[in-house]
Amino acid sequence: MIDIVNLQRKVTVEIAPFRSFTDLLIAELPEAGGRKFSVAFISDVRMKQLNQMFRNIDSTTDVLSFPYEADSFDPDQDNLGDIVISAEQAKKQAVDNGLSFEGEVKQLILHGLLHLCGLDHENDNGEMNARELIVRDQLGIS
Q1: Is residue 64 within 8 Å of residue 51, measured between CB atoms?
Q2: What is this structure's pTM?
Q3: How far apart, in whole angstroms, are the C-alpha atoms of residue 87 and residue 81?
Q4: From CA 80, how far away is CA 38, in angstroms rounded?
C-alpha cells in the first residue's frame, strides 16, 4: 500500500481517489517495479522552503520527488522514495489547465513517480515527457 498523507489545511483533499490511483499506477508502471512510495500534500510555504533547501530556488513549485537512499540501518530496497505536492499549486494549476483538482494531482503523482524511477526531463532530450504522455493516455489521466 502506498502512504498518502495530507499535511496542509488550505485545500480540501480527499485521499481515497489517490489511494486507488497510486495502487493502479505502481502496478502499471514497469519502471517502478511494483515498489512502494509515499505522497504528501503540503502547503505552498513548506514547498517553498523545500525548494530553497534542496534546489536553491526561492519560490514554490508544484511537485518535488525525493528518491529513497538506503543506508546500513534501513536498507529498504522496496522503497522508491517520497513525492511532495503543493495542494495550493495543484489547485491553481487545475484551474489554469482546465482540469479537475483530482486530474491535476494524478498528473503530478505520475510526474513525481517517474522522477523516483530515475527519469529526468531536464537532461533526457524529452524522453521523460514522452513517457509521461504515454502513461497518461494508458491510464486516462486528464
Answers
A1: yes
A2: 0.93
A3: 19
A4: 8
